[in-house]
Amino acid sequence: MSSQTLEKNPVFWFYGSASIAYGIKNNAFSYLLLIYANQVLGLPGYLASLALAIAMLWDAVSDLLLGHWSDKTSSRLGRRHPFMYAAFFVLPVTFYALFNPVVELNDSNTFWYVLTMALLIRTGTTLFEVPSTALLPDLETDYDRRNKWLALRHFFGWTGGNGIHMINFMFWVGAYGVASQAGYSIYGIVGALVIAAAIMVSSMGTQRIAAALPKPVEPFRFRAIKREIQQIFQSVRNKNFAALFFYGLTVGIAGGLGTALYLYNTTYFFGFTGAQISVTAIGVLASPVIAYWAAPYLGKIFGKKGAAIVAILVNIALYPIPYILLLSGWWPELGSWLSLYIYSAFIVMEVICGIIGGVLLDSMMADVVEDSELKTQRRSEGLFYAARGFAAKAISAGGIVGAGSIVSIVGLDGVTSVDAVTNEIRMNLATLFLPIYCGLYLIGLWIVSRYRITREDHNAHLQALSERRDEAH
């Protein structure tokens, strides 16, 4: 099947569009929730970040169990779809309730409300995103075309999350102010509706082909949970999986730190208004479009691992430059439009490189499925994608706690005006997280360089599995 034929396949689009739901939820948790809980609901930075970190740790553990469970689920809907439909009844409702509190909040219950909603939202996300992503190895076996499927999925995830982010800072939170409830309320309503639509459209669009896929060899047994856990550990001992897993561990804390501090940095470090932040978001809309074409092309020319490493290296090199230029006096006037345009150019390039790296790393994980099946005689795609997420989420919880602690340490608790931010606060903010952020990414890239599956290896795995099935019949 050619790339052109692939784009005429409706299932290709239904699979890719699923990530709109994840993109919106991820954007909210990465960029908005810490500042919302801190400045609107009144939680101190360290308590707000603690609630988010606990929810992320729960998410990381539940991902593993549900990924393995969905690998072994046998139903007339297929292995994945019972969980995907269940998410429809959990995720949209709790997303709405987080940004539109359904109980009266006070000093004694705000922490518990934020924690409860965060736990439920992350559970709903796990129910949908883990099994939905894990459809790929069954939908596509070709080494290079897998890049295209995942490039489309990343395109929709970024466009969905960044699109609502742009509108949010143009008309809602940006218009009312990051410390006002009004904008977040609108954001919560619209976000919940779009998430609900994405879940149902993608689930129904992939339903028929998923139901026709082969049933798992053995069912998930809750009564034999010890054996199920042993199988999880047997699968994740795969060396190629380990390279991707430990990459996730090292960069997860950097990602949690950077995204949780994003609005603090754009608003208080660089002095941008909500309208200006929305302009950056408009520019970023071009990034997934470029990456959609660039990631499969670069992966085919240079191989998945080589292209991913180079793209992420460029991202890391660009990331600290605006901060260094501002602190050294080489940056345009704080909050000026010239400053915004230069900053936005950096962000667009960073996001392009980040998406390319993410697409290729996810595609590398898909290739681990057949490598593992040869050794274990089980399909474990749900487990592998969940475990990679587990690594990033478990450790980025530390990044979120670190971000909340930095907010308190540098004196940003209660700060609602850029005029109250001194150069000393900016210097402390930058020097506390930039070296950690870049250093962990470099360590992560060294780890992922240990991954060994090439195009030739993958094709050999497919041939060996085909011969095994022929012998079995």
Could you explain how this protein is built, in words?
- By secondary structure, the protein is mainly alpha-helical.
- It has one domain (12-472): MFS general substrate transporter like domains (Growth Hormone, Chain: A, Up-down Bundle), CATH 1.20.1250.20.
- It contains 22 helices and no strands.
- Helix 13 packs parallel to helix 20 (381-409), helix 16 crosses helix 19 (337-376) and helix 19 (337-376) packs antiparallel against helix 20.
- The protein is globular, with a radius of gyration of 22 Å.
- The two termini are 27 Å apart.
- The model has no long low-confidence stretch (mean pLDDT 87).
What fold name goes in the CATH topology slot?
A: Growth Hormone, Chain: A
Count of helical segments?
Answer: 22
Name given to the CATH architecture: Up-down Bundle
* Weakly predicted, low-confidence segments: none
Roughly how much helix do the residues carry, as a percent range? over 70%
Measure the end-to-end span.
Answer: 27 Å
Strand proportion, as a percent range, falls in under 5%
Summarize it:
The chain is built from 22 helices and no strands. It has helices spanning 3-6, 10-17, 19-39, 45-71, 81-88, 91-99, 110-133, 136-139, 145-171, 173-176, 181-211, 225-236, 239-260, 262-269, 274-284, 286-302, 304-318, 321-327, 337-376, 381-409, 423-448, 455-472.
What secondary-structure arrangement, pairings included, does this model have?
Elements: H1 3-6, H2 10-17, H3 19-39, H4 45-71, H5 81-88, H6 91-99, H7 110-133, H8 136-139, H9 145-171, H10 173-176, H11 181-211, H12 225-236, H13 239-260, H14 262-269, H15 274-284, H16 286-302, H17 304-318, H18 321-327, H19 337-376, H20 381-409, H21 423-448, H22 455-472
Helix pairs in contact: 2-9, 2-11, 3-4, 3-7, 3-9, 3-11, 4-7, 4-20, 5-7, 5-11, 6-7, 6-11, 9-15, 9-16, 9-19, 13-20, 13-21, 15-19, 16-17, 16-19, 17-19, 17-21, 19-20, 19-22
